[in-house]
Amino acid sequence: MKKLYIFFIVFAILAMGLSxxxxxxxxxxxxxxxxxxxxxDVPGHPDLKIRVFVHKIKPAKPSxxxxxxxxxxxxxxxxSADVAFAGWKLxxxxxYNLNPASVPGTVGGGNLATIAATAFNRFSGAxxxxxxxxxGLNTTKTAKALDGINLIAWGKASAGTLGVTxxxxxxxxxxxxxxxxxxxxxxxxxxxxxxTCAYSGVYDAQNILTHEIGHWFGLDDHYTSGYVDxxxxxxxxxxxxxxxxxxxxxxxxxxxxx
Length: 258
Prior knowledge:
Elements: H1 2-20, E1 38-41, E2 49-57, E3 70-71, E4 93-98, H2 112-126, E5 132-135, E6 151-155, E7 161-170, E8 175-184, E9 189-190, E10 198-199, E11 203-204, H3 205-216, E12 235-236, H4 248-257
């Protein structure tokens, strides 16, 4: 009888532990979410979908540049084609979480706060600060997970991918639950902090992250020639910083949402 009593006590403790575990814990590994453009179900959350954006390299296999050189004659053309709404919008106040330790040394972890704030301000400013996005606590996470952290970090991604953004959202209410952006650490990254200067043969952190933040605000990817100079063009190239600034088409898309 005593052994049976102890068994029920242990069982109750284990059951309580399971019931107190975070509601998102079952998705921490996200083994069911592929690194592939698309909209997917979220197991255990029938009201949610997850949209995955994969920012691809163009050309697919860039030639390596052992010694990048600063080029301050790169162009920043305008683009008038309106960018489409992807299906969600940010609330008026939102927080993101950075992982400075994950940032490549050629960019500098200490610069991530400036890079991220600049990217968010591009979009917030374009809509009269109707959405204010600020930095929350830093994190050590480097991978996507539905865990209450709106992550910006460098981590693992497939070859041919510059960055991946994951958006958990309610397609009925258009409300965002969580967003994660992973920049691919397999490539060489630099940062100029300039809209007309880029290092040759490598990728600019501001350029690509600004594109990814556009997805946070609800903007879709475009791949046709009419969008080639838009921030939300779905391909990224070396020696490019034109995505640092928004075109009229990007701004028109934002204003249509907010």
